[in-house]
Every structure is written in C-alpha cells, then in structure tokens.
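Researcher: We're teaching a course module on how sequence relates to structure. For the next exercise, students receive a sequence and then see the predicted structure as tokens, so they can try to spot secondary structure elements on their own. Here is the exercise chain.
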Amino acid sequence: MQKVVNIIAISSGVVSLAVVGSGLFIYLQRDKLVDSVKSQVLKSVTGALPSLVDTKIPSMTGPALTPSVAPKAGLGIPR
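Model: And here is the predicted structure for the students to work with:
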C-alpha cells in the first residue's frame, strides 16, 4: 500500500512541476507568442481585405454642408 501512495505522490509532484514549468515558459515567451499570433492574424485579414475594400467603399459621397445648410451653433436642437 505504501508503494501505491509513493507512486501517486511522485506522479502528483511531476504533474505540478510540469504545470509550473509550462506556465513559466509561457510567461517568459509571451511577447514572442503574442507577436506570432498578431502576424498570423494580419496575414489572414490582409488576404480578404482588398476584396472587401473594393466592394464596400462608396464611389461618391454626399454633398458638403454649406454655411446656409449647416447649423448656426449649439447642438442643432429645433426650437
């Protein structure tokens, strides 16, 4: 029975050390990991971006506001 308890204790210690070690590794490499993920996301987004920009941007906008159309001052609340 003592051998079983010792095996469980040793395996528990190994698992704890693995969790702490992997957490420490991720903490120390976080900047590199974040930059890697950012570059992957930018590569995937820029592939789809040109077709979206070509179809979603209007070819003409509305007329500019002239002084006679623009509100005088304030929030433009009607009186």
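Model: If you want an answer key for the exercise: The radius of gyration is 31 Å. DSSP finds two helices and no strands in the chain.
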